[in-house]
Specification:
With about 270 residues, the protein is an alpha+beta fold. The protein folds into two domains: about 70 residues; about 180 residues, no CATH class. It is built from five helices and 13 strands. Helix 2 packs across helix 3. The radius of gyration is 21 Å and the shape is elongated. The termini are far apart.
Length: about 270
């Protein structure tokens, strides 16, 4: 059950983490045609209006105050209504990464390692289908092919989940570019086949689909062999999944920050 430390809404304390928690809870109860809220931790007219709408429709208040208090009726109702809302069925989702046998620049152990711009770092195209749609720029390569590897061509199960250490909460279902953040997880963090310049490096674990960076250097590793999205494409990519899977349980059901399986990732030409 989600909790807040202080009041949120009209006249509330409105701490960012509390606001994000309430926004996420409200979204669980806002099916079409109600518009979903941006979970940004900022209180504003849309969030207050959403609180009032929920208080009228669910809490049955004749004079909604647009405020959610710790241990109050509105928070209890947001956490209730027969348990967490389930996500709208979708999928299985297909994610296809087409590399065309291209190699990126900016990767130690490959030609053009000193060129660390985004212009040629993201050699592949990633397409999403199966209930969600989109096309994005990405790379399958790590930052150093002499010690790490990239996914070999083939198919892998894909899961919802989180990157880096942390305890998933509803407020974490937002777009982030650093630290603990929502991502897609390949093969539930289990071993996958990789190709490297190092002959003994044939497998890797904890491979994710997450964001890349605009610039990088050898002292700040960018990828352990994950599929990385062009930084300009990351937000639109991960929002596809954040908007469709709004229940935090979908993102952590399997353990080790791994959630439900949603489809397949295919790597190929």
């Amino acid at each position: 059950m989600a909790t807040i430390t202080s009041s949120v809404g009209r006249g509330g304390t409105n701490l960012a983490q509390d606001v994000s928690s309430v926004q996420s809870l409200l979204n669980r109860h806002r099916n079409a045609p109600l518009a979903r809220l941006d979970v940004d931790g900022k209180i504003g007219p849309k969030t207050i209006e959403a609180i009032e709408e929920f208080q009228r429709r669910v809490v049955k208040l004749s004079n909604p105050d647009g405020r959610v208090d710790p241990n109050g009726k509105t928070l209890t109702a947001l956490n209730g209504s027969g348990g967490p809302a389930t996500s709208t069925p979708v999928g299985p989702i297909n994610i296809k990464v087409s590399h065309g046998n291209k190699q990126p620049t900016g990767v130690t152990g490959l030609p053009g390692a000193a060129n660390t711009t985004t212009a040629t770092r993201y050699e592949s195209t990633l397409t999403v289908s199966g209930g969600l749609t989109g096309s994005f720029r990405c790379s399958i390569y790590p930052d150093n092919m002499n010690v790490k590897g990239h996914l070999t061509d083939g198919s892998y199960p894909i899961y919802l989940g989180f990157h880096k250490a942390g305890t998933p909460q509803s407020a974490d279902l937002v777009v982030r570019t650093n630290g603990f953040r929502a991502v897609l997880v390949v093969n539930a963090n289990n071993s996958v086949s990789v190709k490297s310049n190092l002959s003994s490096k044939t497998t890797a674990t904890h491979i994710h689909i997450h964001n890349g960076y605009n610039t990088w250097n050898a002292s700040t590793p960018m990828s352990e062999g994950c599929v990385i999205l062009h930084p300009a494409d990351w937000s639109n990519f991960i929002k596809l999944f954040l908007d469709k899977f709004t229940n935090i349980d979908d993102w952590k059901s399997t353990g080790d920050r791994v959630g439900k399986k949603i489809g397949e990732l295919t790597i190929g030409v």
